[in-house]
Amino acid sequence: MKTICAKYSDVKSAIIAVKQLSEDLGYRRKGKTKLSDAYYLDYGIYELDWDFFLEEYERRFNLTLEGLIYEDYFPELNPLHEILKLPLRIIMKIFSLFSMRMKRIYINIFGIKCKRLEVGDLVLSVLNKRFASRPDY
Question: Are 83 and 77 contacting, i.e. CB atoms less than 8 angstroms apart?
């Protein structure tokens, strides 16, 4: 586990700045932006939206997210793959309505499998001057 030493005022200003960036770009859920909000799972940011967000992040904070591996936090969306899975998805969804076991199988197969890139991770990255994930610190 690593540590980052920062003054309270720096931490508070980083939190406010990253939350403000998310809200300025229109990414927020109902209510206030929280440090635990995930960019892909809660806001639906990926692909071109993420590129736009990243450009704005780099411009505002004058740093890059060096060390962030895109594929770990944003699932690959392949339209052909999704079309081919559609018949199986429909059949399993019908069976999952009647069986809890099938519902668990459905979630395991078709559930989103990616790490959560949260607002708090980007706040930590601002303080660290490179990408940092909160579970590592």
Answer: no
- What average pLDDT does the segment 36-57 reach? 81
Q: Which residues contact 17 (CB under 8 A, 6 or more apart)?
A: 60, 61, 126
pLDDT of residue 95: 74
Instruction: Sort 128 into a burial class: Cβ within 10 Å, 0-12 / 13-18 / 19+.
Output: middle
Please compute the mean of the pLDDT values over residues 94-120 and round it to a whole number: 73
List, as own/partner pairs, every contact residues 46-53 make where C-beta atoms lie below 8 angstroms and the sequence separation is at least 24, other chains included: 46/74, 46/75, 46/77, 47/74, 47/77, 50/74, 52/25, 53/25, 53/27
Angle, CA 32 vertex, CA 124 and CA 73 arms, to 5°: 45
Q: Where are the alpha helices (DSSP H) in 4-134?
A: 8-24, 48-61, 70-73, 79-96, 100-110, 119-128
pLDDT of residue 4: 77
If you average pLDDT over residues 22-26, what whole number do you get? 82
Neighbours of 65 (CB within 10 A): 18
User: What average pLDDT is seen over the chain?
Assistant: 79
d(CA 28, CA 59): 20
